[in-house]
From TrEMBL:
Annotated spans, Disordered: 434-468
The protein, known as: M28 family peptidase
Pfam families: Peptidase_M28
UniProt KW keywords: Membrane, Transmembrane, Transmembrane helix
Length: 468
């Protein structure tokens, strides 16, 4: 029995140590050694957001096949505007890539807008690529199934300043800067404005599938911007510390943005939600396009929030109403509740830009790719079974110790009494048969004294039998 107890205790201790060391963040590397000057302004972010939200009266709802996109409304109008705005900012028009996607019984028409930049061949001989994206559609209008018998989502009638206008505006500003500085790139960059983000992250999935095997192998990092403008700015990379994550967070510290960015709290998960085939739980930052890339390449999810668990409250950690993807998701409400929202957009863009142009960026991403899969078993159902087995071993060890102490404590001259468990309470047991019963309902034994009292195991100066 002592061997069983010893092994059980060791297993529990090793499990706790491993979880805290394998999944905890390491120290941030000093990835950026200076020399970077800020290139974005909060005013520029705000102006871009205002112009984008005005497109089509704010309606960027995904269209079902019956509502042909040729009418120039909704999501397609927003895609056309983004493509034209890219040409205005950079001289290069974004490419509209149309696709159809089946969701349940309906076929949806949508489109991504892709803005591709090439690094000089001498800087990127291997043809590596970084993807930086955000979905541009919203839930302005109600999206019904073709037969009218189901509703995919209810319309908010709000333009979606947080969901996801702020991210789109930040991305457009980044396209402007990157296009003027391609000579400094060490990897190719695809800026992707995803369609159908509000339905199954369809645009991101279509983009990733459309790259082909060779194109997917070239991607060393996929960045997703989502829900900017909340009380805290988070960057999430994985449940474990990653090389590219350390590099980006180190860069943020190096350019003076470190105080404005952090890893999300570990409790930001919802164990009851399954959004990807490989994950029995879903971290909050994976509830966006990042989930499409997770486990396939390095990821960086840039989002905002507070100290609350997703979908369990309507208020953030400061008592303000959560506005993203609700009827309150307007620019006016964002300005009132989060007056520094534009500066948060600037910080996100500044950090990502300095990281991609920073020396050592490609190397950090390649090292991060080597780490993918190192802890895959932690996100599998096998891990849950192992955790359950370890917990059971701990319970078994506790039970064996308790039974052993009870036997010693109640042993009499005529031999040791039997220790029995009164599962349904003492009303169904015979307390006069000389045995000792543990009443499950009360948690106390039926004996001359309570072994779970101040000193149940006789450790307070007594002998092995618990006698003074």
């Amino acid at each position: 029995m002592k061997k069983i107890i010893f092994v059980s205790v060791i297993l529990v201790a090793l499990s706790v140590i491993f979880l805290f060391t394998a999944c905890g963040p390491s120290g941030y590397a000093d990835a950026f050694d200076g020399g970077y000057s800020p290139v974005y302004s909060a005013d520029g972010m705000k102006t871009e957001l205002e112009e984008f939200l005005a497109v089509g009266g704010g309606d960027r709802t995904c269209l079902v096949s019956e509502n042909a996109p040729e009418d120039g409304s909704g999501e397609y109008a927003a895609a056309e505007w983004i493509a034209g705005e890219l040409e205005t900012l950079t001289g290069q028009k974004g490419k509209i890539v149309s696709f159809e996607r089946d969701v349940y019984t309906d076929s949806f028409e949508s489109q991504n807008v892709v803005f591709s930049l090439k690094a000089p061949a001498e800087n990127n001989p291997e043809g590596y690529k970084v993807v930086i994206g955000a979905h541009y559609d919203n839930m302005y209008d109600t999206c019904e199934s073709g037969d009218g018998r189901a509703v995919y989502f209810r319309g908010t009638r709000a333009a979606g300043a947080m969901g996801n206008g702020a991210a789109v505006a930040a991305l457009l500003n980044m396209c402007d800067i990157f296009a003027d500085n391609t000579d400094g790139l060490s990897t190719d960059v695809d800026f992707v404005f995803y369609g159908m983000g509000c339905i199954d992250y369809g645009g991101a999935d279509e983009y990733w599938s459309g790259l082909g095997e060779r194109g997917r192998d070239s991607v060393i990092l996929a960045v997703t911007l989502e829900r900017l403008g909340g009380s805290d700015l988070w960057m999430w990379f994985d449940e474990q510390s990653t090389a590219h994550g350390d590099f980006i967070l180190g860069t943020a510290a190096g350019i003076g943005c470190g105080d404005h960015i952090s890893l999300p709290p570990a409790r930001q998960t919802d164990p009851d939600v399954i959004l990807t085939d490989s994950l029995p739980y879903t971290p909050y930052p994976l509830m966006n396009e990042t989930s499409v890339y997770f486990g396939k390449t390095n990821v960086c999810s840039v989002t905002s929030g507070s100290d609350f668990t997703f979908l369990l409250t309507d208020n953030d950690g400061y008592g303000r109403e959560d506005i993203s993807y609700t009827s309150r998701d307007t620019l006016e409400r964002l300005e009132r509740d989060m007056p520094d929202y534009a500066d948060q957009m600037r910080v996100a863009a500044e950090t990502l830009t300095a990281s991609v142009f920073g020396a050592g960026f490609t190397g950090a991403c390649l090292k991060g790719l080597e780490q993918i899969g190192a802890y895959d078993w932690l996100t599998s159902r096998l891990a849950a079974y192992i955790a359950g087995a370890v917990l059971a071993a701990g319970v078994l060890a506790f039970t064996l110790i308790t039974v052993s102490r009870l036997r010693k404590k109640y042993a009499g001259e005529g031999g040791r009494p039997n220790i029995k468990v009164a599962v349904f309470g003492m009303d169904y047991e015979d307390p006069e048969d000389g045995d000792v019963y543990v009443d499950i309902r009360s948690g106390k034994p039926n004996g001359p004294e309570d072994p779970f009292g101040d000193d149940p195991f006789g450790t307070d100066g007594g002998d092995k039998d618990g006698k003074a």
